[in-house]
Amino acid sequence: MNWRPFRSVSCLPTVVTWDQLQRPTTLSYIKLYRRRINRSSQKPRFTVEHGFPHQPSALAFDPRLQLMAIGTKSGAIKIYGAPGVEFTGLHKDTTAVTQMHFLPGQGRLLSLLDDNTIHLWELVAGPPRELGGVKKEGVVSLNEVGSYSLPGRPGIESCSATRVTVLLLLKSCDLLCIGTEGGGVYFLELPRLLLKDNLTLPDDYRCGKSLGPVESLQEHPQQSGKILIGYSRGLVVLWDLNARHADQLFLGKQQLESLVWERSGSLFVSSHNDGGYSVWSVTSGNACNPQPVSSTIPYGPFPCKAINKILWRTTQAGSPVLLYSGGMPRASYGDRHCLTIQQDKDHVTLDFTSRVIDFFTVHSFDDPSALVVLLEEELVVIDLQTPGWPSLPTPYLAPLHSSAITCSCHISSVPPKLWERLVNAGRAQQGRQHTWPICGGKNLAPPPKQQELLLTGHEDGTVRFWDASGVALTPLYKLSTANVFHTDCDPCDDPQDPGNDPDMQQEEEWPPFRKVGCFDPYSDDPRLGIQKISLCKYSNKLLVAGTAGQVIVLGLNDERSDHSVDVSVVDLLQDREGFTWKGHDRLEPRLKPAPFPPGFQPQVLVQCLPPASVTAVALHAEWNLIAFGTSHGFGLDSFIKIQASDADGPLSRVKSLKKSLRQSFRRIRKSRVSGKKRTITTPTSKVQEANAALAEQEEVAPVQRRIEPRSADDSLSGVVRCLCFADTFLRDGTHHGPTLWAGTNSGSVYAYALEVPGVGSGRACERGGASESSTCVEAVLGKEIQLMHRAPVVSISVLDGRGKPLPDPYEASQDLAIAPDMTNAHSVLIASEEQLKVFSLPKVSAKTKFKLTAHEGCRVRKVALVVFSSAVQEDYSEHTLVCLTNLGDMHLFNIPGLRPQVRYDCIRKEDISGIASCVFTKNGQGENNMFNVLMKKKKQKKLESPCCFTLSLIFFTYKYLHQTVWHKCLDLVLLQQSCVSNLLWNEKQKHSSDFCCSVSVFKAELFKPASGAKNSFSAAACLLSSAGFYLISPSEYERFSLSAKVLTEPLCSVQLDRPLEFTLAR
C-alpha cells in the first residue's frame, strides 16, 4: 500500500538550536508553508441525528430497562432511554422494519424485516475508559449478532405460506413464536435462533389458508405455555404448548385484528374489522365458545373502520382502562387518525394529524402511568395518572418539522444569562413539569462546555429554539410572529380543549375529539413563513424576516406585556413608474396593543414594498441597525427612535434611507426590465476595466475549466443574496467607520459608508463631533464591485489587518474577543458561486483568488468562517473558510491566502435539500490531539521510531529539560513525501500490532528522539475542527464533525440482567 498523505514535496528546515529559538531577533518563529492535504477519500464523522426518525414503521418497549426502540422503513433501529441515551443500528439491507420485540432485561432486540428475515441485536459494552487516571465503565453500542429466515414449504405458494405476520416472545425469553400467512405457527429457540420442530403445530391442526393468516399471538398472563392464536377470519384458539393440543375454541364472526389478555387471565378482548371489540370468557369446562360475553361498536351504528390494536389495562382503583386505535365512522371521520381512551364515564378520542404506527403503555403491575403513541410524524406521550390525561412535553424526538422548516440558524457559546431566560420562557409556555417515563440507561457524556442554540424558522410564522448542546435536541422555547398581524387564526390563544368547553361539547358531542400533538403540515397563511433569522446573543435582539416582506425586531422580556408594535413602511421602488406588483398582498399589522407572553416580544415591524420575500438580513445591535434585502432592492433601518432637529419632526425610517442607497438597485431594475446592459460609473470602474482587460489576456490553465460570463439580463439579477455590517476603511486608508455591504445575484457588490449617530468615525472626529444633520443614519455609496462572470455572491466578510474576521457586535467593546487590528490595511473576502476572491481596502484591488468552479467543476452553496481551536494549546485557534458545494463536498481554505487545505465528501449530491439547508457552526466542536511527532535534530538528521502519527493540522512546541515552552504557532509541517511514505510502510511491517486504519484517521510509527537527549524539537498537533448540521429528511438534522475527541455523540451505558463481555464495538 502506498501512503501519500501530502501531494507536494518539501524538505524540512535545517538544524535549529535552542539558543536560536530563544532569540526573537534571530528567529522568532519558523515559517513553514502550508500545502494541500490529499484527504479526498476521507469523510467527516457523522456523530448524531437530531429530530424525529424519518418514516417510522415499528415500535417496541422494554419495561425492565425502560428503553424504547423505533424501527424505520429504511432499516434503521434507534433505541432511546433517558435524555442522552441513544443507540443506533442499521440493517445491511435497506428494508422496512415491520415488528420489533425486546427480550426484557437482557438488552437484546428482535426485529422482523419486510423481506421475511428475523434479526437479533445486542447491546454490547466496550472496554473500560480511562479519564484522568480514573477507570470509567465502557460505552455500550448496538450490534447485530444473528439473523434467521423461515424456510419455505414445498409447493408453488411456499413463499406466501411462510411469510411471517406476527411474532410473540414468551415470558421465559427462550422461545419465539412465529405466526405466518399460511396459518402455521413456528417456534425459534433464543438466542441461538434455531427452529424447534417438535413444537410446531401438528399436521392435524394445519388448515392452510382456510382460516386466513395468523393475526395475533398472546401468551396467557398466569399460565405459562398457553397462548392465544388468532386467525384473520375470526377463529381464536387457546393452545397448550406443552400438551400440543387446543384447550378451547372461540368463534368470532368478524375479521380479527388484534387480541389482548385481561391481567387475571379469565378474560381476553378481541378487536375486529367492523370497528367493534368483543370480550370473551375463558372457562375450563367449555371446549368451544361461540358467543362473546359482550360485543361493542363504540362509534356505531354506522359502518366504522377497523380497530387495529386494543389494550386492556387494569388499575388499582378498580376500573380498567381500554385503549384502542381506529374505529372511526367511515363516512364522517374515516380520514381521521385517532386513538381512544376509555375508563368508566371518561371517554376521550385523541385526534392526531398523522397516522398511528403503534402504541404501548408504561405501567407497573398493570396500572398504567403513561401512554406512548408512535405516529408517522411525531411521538406523543399521554399522562394517564393526571386527571384529564394531558400530553407530556418530549425532551427528545420532538418533531423539528411540526411546520415545514424554511430556514435555520446556529448560535454557539450562548451566554448563561440568555440561556436561563430562554429556559424560563419555555417553562412558562409548557406549564407544569412532568417526569419523562422512558428513563432507562445512563448518560456517560460529560456536560457540555458551552451551550448551543439551534433556531429553526417555520412556514407557520414560528421560530423554535432548540438545545443543541448535547445528543438530545431538546425544545426550549417557541416564538410565534403571527400575533403581530391580523390572521384567520390568532396564535395568542392556545387551542381550546373540546373536553373542557361545554359549547364545543354540544357542537361535537360524538366522538369526543381532542387535538393532540404539535405536527401541523398546513399553514393558515403562507405569508407568515420565516425566511431569515439573525440573533445577537449579547444584546438579546432577534431579527426575523418573512415571505411577505415583513422584517421584525424583537427584544427579550421576562414579563408578559401588552403593547403595540411600531410599524414603518419602506418602499424599495420609490420614483419607479410603470411597475405593477402581481404577487401576494402584505400582511395587515395590528395597530392596537396586543398581549405578548414572556420571551421575545416584537418591538419594530418594517414592511417592505413590494411585499416580496426577504432574501437577506443583517443585524448590528451595537449600532441599532438592521439591513434587509429582497428581489427589488435592499434597505437600512434603525430600530431605535432618534429625534431629529430638522423640520420633519421625529425621524422617519423611510426618510433616513438616502437616495444613494437606492440608486444602484434602481439601475439594476431598469436594466432587468428594459433588457439593456447598464454602464457603471463609479470610482472603481477604471479598476474593473483594467481587471477585465487583464482577464481577457490571461490564458486558462490546462487544469481549469473555462467559465463563460453570465448574461446581465437575467430576471433574478437584482436579488440580494447577502448583507454585511463592518467597521472598516472604505473612504480612505486613514479613517475607518461603519459600512454596509450588499451582494446580489448578478455578481455585484455595493459598499456604503454609514454615519451612525453615537458611533465615532474618523471623519466625524475630524469635524469635531457629529453635527445636527448627522443625527439621522446616512448611507453614501462608496464602492461598487462587479465580478467578471456575474456569478451570484454567496457571502461577504471583512478581514482586519491580521487577516482575521471582524468580531461580532459587542465582542470587542466588552472585551469578549480580541480587538481587530485597525492599524494595518483591511481586506474584504467575497465568495461567489464560482470563485473566492480577496480585495484590499480601501482601494478595492484584487489580492488573491481561487477559481473553485474552474478547478473543481462545482459551485459554492454555503460559506462560513469557522474558528478551529486547538486541543493541546487552549489559547490557540485558526480561522478557516469552509465551503459546501452543489456536489456535497466540503472545501477548507486558509485566509486570507485562500490556499486549499482539505476536501471532504460530506453530503450526497442528490440530497439537494440537505445541501441547501446545511448550517455551519461558528466554533469547532471537536478537538483532538491527533499528531505527535518527535524529531531529533542532529547533524546527521537521524530519525528513529516509534511514535503515534495521524494526519491533521499541526503546530509546534519546544521541549527543554522536561519543560514545554509554547512558542510561535505555525501552520503546517511539510514532510518529504517519499520519506513519510517509506517510514509508514516500513513501520507498519515492524509494528503491525500498533497499526490501525479506519475511514477517518490512521495511525503508524514515525519518529522518536534518541534516548538521553537534552534538547528535542517537538511537533504536537491537534485536529482543528468544525461541526455542522444539515437536513437529511423533513424531520431530522444530522450533525457532522471533523474531529474525534470532544464530540456530540451518544456515550451511554445500560445495566442488564445478563453479563456483558468487554469487546470492541464493531
TrEMBL record:
Domain Lethal giant larvae homologue per the UniProt entry, residue ranges: 296-390
Cited SMART domains: WD40
Record carries keyword Repeat: yes
Spans of repeat WD: 453-467
GO biological process: cortical actin cytoskeleton organization; establishment of spindle orientation; exocytosis; Golgi to plasma membrane transport; regulation of establishment or maintenance of cell polarity; regulation of Notch signaling pathway
Cellular component terms per the entry's GO annotation: cortical actin cytoskeleton; plasma membrane
The entry's keywords: Exocytosis, Repeat, WD repeat
PANTHER family: LETHAL 2 GIANT LARVAE PROTEIN (PTHR10241), LETHAL(2) GIANT LARVAE PROTEIN HOMOLOG 1 (PTHR10241:SF21)
Name of the protein: LLGL scribble cell polarity complex component 1
Organism: Salarias fasciatus (Jewelled blenny)
